[in-house]
Amino acid sequence: MEEKIVEVKNLFFQYERKYVLENINISIEKGAFLGLVGPNGSGKSTLLKCLLGLLKPQKGTIHLFGEDIHQFNDWHKIGYVSQKANSFNSSFPATVFEVVASGLTPKLGLFKKMKKADREKVMEAIRAVGMEKAVHQNIGELSGGQQQRVFIARALVSEPKLLILDEPTVGVDSQTVNHFYQLLHHLNKELEITLILVTHDIGAITDKVTHVACLNKQLYFHGNKDEFERLKETELTSLYGHPVQLITHDHE
Amino acid sequence: MFSSILQFEFLQNAFLSGILIGFIAPLLGVFVVVRRLSLIADALSHVTLAGIAGGLFLSSKISFFSSLNPIYVGMGFSVLGSLVIEKLRAFYKFYAELAIPIIMSAGIGFSVVFISLADGFNTDLFNYLFGSVSAVSRTDLYIITGVAALVILLIVLFYKELFLLSFDEEYASALGLPAKGLHLLFILTVALVISVSMRVVGILLVSSLMTLPVAASIRIATGFKKTIFLSVIIGEASVLIGLVLSYYLDIAPGGTIVILEVLALIFSIILSKARRGKI
């Protein structure tokens, strides 16, 4: 059996009194590329924040790399690329190198400085996203798509086993988006990084991912791509907001 | 002048404390500015004033406290004020900036009451308001040295953590960094630096030491380390040149320092525009 990277069981999350996530069950195996789709306000980002330990669910369990999230300490195994607009001050005076190097912070540990090998790792991550020409430029001088590539490099530099991306292509032009998906494909196939990609655009990702999960407060579908494609032809549209809970778990 | 420095202790105290504060205020100030906490520095300086006024009141009215250095009470108030600001910012989550006017007016309110209790204005208080570097005592210098050591230690030990926290707080938490604890340590250090810096430029000008050199360098330096480096150079140069000028021209040192910083800022704005081809 393949190693389980993420296992979510019976997860509930509420803000104030309103449930945003209800009875979520997801399991992600090593090497998978999961597309997590759902309309705005469907709880996608909330689910990610639970996985990252930023939010604490009221009910249910989360296991990361086989370990309960409360005991989990290897956060450097997880890379995270957020919707950049939310958490980033674009006039921050930092170079591309400095931003990417900050991704090594937890791996280096307290009181430790970067060594030559670490600097080389930073350069490697920058080359992986094709930003080597901008190494010593301030991050604010780059275009939105370039900035997003820098943030991916920051997530890659700690050599994560799992990469979580929250709508990383919002506000990025379509040509850059294509390059971006090629990069993700490369990370998934060549570097064997397990990926979770959140998006509200189902169409754009179906030929890239191996698995799909449809979320709208509850999980309406969770399975591999072929099952999803078959379903798509018949009743994808009615799936959203449909009262019937349709959860299929695949264990290849 | 240099022979006078060797001769007079008060000049030594003035220059040494100036050099230390010219270094640590912009060093910490870079983090304050990029985290958009500049106004908190201002609010804390007014809380420090309340502490100073309280200290002066105690030492003038109660014989037990007659030898009390008001800077200690100021430091205590500043640290306490920083904790209250953090509580208020969390309480008014969506109006976090409300914490600043609340703390600022509370600080001024207490100051005025303490001042009236201590029988109104005297030269001591005037010195704290506008700075009086020649009034820095040896004890003051020791306190400033201690705080400077603390700031440098904090930055050296936690540089990469503070950078990550400043650049992207959510990401820092996602990576498992103890963001809250680190932030608290940071804000307490800011409180201490404000309470000791005010000896040199005074309460009304203290936040300028932390913010103006950074404002001058942030648009012309590339990268975070270079921004820190340039800010410290500008801060240090303004303090030293300001002290020398004020000595020879017999003008207020605090004001002179701030005016020099404003000049550096204007120069950097012109330089930055010229580079972008707008002039």
From TrEMBL, chain B:
CDD domains: TM_ABC_iron-siderophores_like. GO terms for cellular component: ATP-binding cassette (ABC) transporter complex. It is a multi-pass membrane protein. Keywords: Membrane, Transmembrane, Transmembrane helix, Transport. Gene3D superfamilies: ABC transporter involved in vitamin B12 uptake, BtuC. This is Metal ABC transporter permease. Pfam families: ABC-3. Belongs to the ABC-3 integral membrane protein family. GO terms for biological process: response to zinc ion; transmembrane transport. It is found in: Cell membrane; Membrane. The chain crosses the membrane at residues 14-34, 39-58, 64-86, 98-121, 141-159, 171-194, 200-221, 228-249, 255-272. InterPro entries: ABC_BtuC-like, ABC_TroCD. SUPFAM superfamilies: ABC transporter involved in vitamin B12 uptake, BtuC.
